Amino acid sequence: MACNETLANGIREIIRSFSEEFTEKKMFGGLSFLYKGKMTVGIIKEELVVRIVSEKEQAMLDFPYVRPMDFTKRPMKEFIYVSEEGLKTEEQLVQWITLGLEHAKSKLK
Fold first, then answer.
1. Spatial contact of 100 and 51, defined as CB atoms under 8 Å apart
2. Whole-number mean pLDDT of the chain?
3. How do 47-51 and 38-44 pair as beta strands?
4. Which domains does the chain carry?
5. 76-89 pLDDT, tens per residue?
6. Which residues of the chain fall short of a pLDDT of 70?
7. Whole-angstrom Cα distance, residue 82 to residue 43?
8. What's 29's DSSP letter?
9. Distance, CA of 94 to CA of 15 (rounded, Å)
10. 13 touches 72 (CB < 8 A)
11. Which residues are CB-neighbours of 10 under 8 A, at least 6 positions away?
12. Closest Cα to residue 9, out of 34, 33, 39, 26?
């Protein structure tokens, strides 16, 4: 599997503290973490992939370490990549996971 295992283990550790139950699934050639079947965050190689509610997407793209997910050579709606610079602290990773969980819950309504 082509993903950063250190990052995957960090995500696993953090989601244990959430009351929600997550599952893991191989997706996009990497690893994704899902809530009730909806993707929250994932890892492709060294980058974090985050699902973002559309209302927050542009604000997140303003960060220098965030870019649109262009896995298909075109930006995908509500998907962003976060480089290692945006993952330096546990707090940052918690924030990204929380945003991904917010997106998943919005799709379950």
1. yes
2. 94
3. antiparallel
4. 5-106 (3.30.1460.30)
5. 999 999 999 999 99
6. 1-2
7. 10
8. T
9. 8
10. no
11. 90, 93
12. 33
